[in-house]
Amino acid sequence: VIMLEPSSGALKPSEDVSISMTAQTGRQTQNNGQGLAPVDDELLELTGQGQLPMIAGDGRMPWKYYAAPYENDRRPKISIVISQLGLSDADTQAVIGSLPAAISLSFSAFSRDLQEKIDRAKRDGHEVLLDLPMEPLNYPYNDPGPNTLLTTSSVVKNLENLEWTMAKGMGYIGLVTHMGGRFTTDSESLL
Fold first, then answer.
1. Tens of pLDDT along 111-128?
2. 165 — phi, psi (to 5°)?
3. Beta strands of the chain (E only): which ranges?
4. Which residue, among 179, 172, 104, has the nearest Cα to 137 in the 3D structure?
5. Residue 94, Cβ neighbours under 10 Å: how many?
6. Could you tell me the CA-to-CA distances from 28 to 36, 51, 159, 168 in Å, in that order?
7. Cβ atoms of residues 94 and 10 within 8 Å
8. Would you say 179 and 133 are in contact if contact means Cβ atoms under 8 Å apart?
9. Is the peptide bond before 140 cis (omega within 30 degrees of 0)?
10. pTM of the model
């Protein structure tokens, strides 16, 4: 997975670098402008934090249901994920409107009108993820924000923070670490 983050200012394509997306992924050809699957209430569970993804009674899993279709031709593949979207409306709209559907988009749980942005990205054929704030190496100097998973927090508190993030949007295929250098290297925290 290649992670790209929009910098301050509008994300603009470089004249020196181009990313060629072909029908090999199957996403462009199978999408046909219809967008990806809308939110399905059978894949949601109401909790104290809000609605969280769950496996439906018929066995459907949210990450598979909301994923973009693809043709498995056994050739190597890469994934490109643009993260930290949603905080700047201009950057978010530029990314959704200009990048090919084969590029996945990850949104900050702190975004205003988050579900509206997720829905628009899915209508344009982008797989959607949520950024999960995790403790970086230089925390608290570099702070991902409230509800961050911390090595000093209890398992119960980290689960509450995880559910808080997961309940902020619906119809996503997974989570992407936001920062997390310390948290992801601490074996006790990952248990």
1. 999 999 999 999 999 999
2. -65, -45
3. 2-4, 44-47, 50-53, 80-85, 104-107, 128-134, 174-179
4. 179
5. 17
6. 11, 30, 36, 28
7. yes
8. yes
9. yes
10. 0.80
Q: Which residue has the tokens 């988009």?
A: 105
Residue 112 φ/ψ region, left for φ over 0, alpha for ψ in the -120 to 50 degree band, beta for the rest = beta
Q: Are the CB atoms for 179 and 136 separated by under 8 Å?
A: yes
End-to-end Cα separation, the chain, in angstroms: 23
> 187: Cβ–Cβ under 8 A, 6 or more apart, which residues?
none
Helix axes 89-98, 114-123, angle to 10 degrees: 10
Which tokens is 106 given? Answer: 């990850």
**DSSP state letter for 38:** P
Cβ neighbours, 10 Å, residue 173:
20
Largest CA distance in the chain: 49
pLDDT tens for each residue of 12-64: 443 333 333 333 333 333 344 568 999 999 999 999 999 999 999 999 999 99
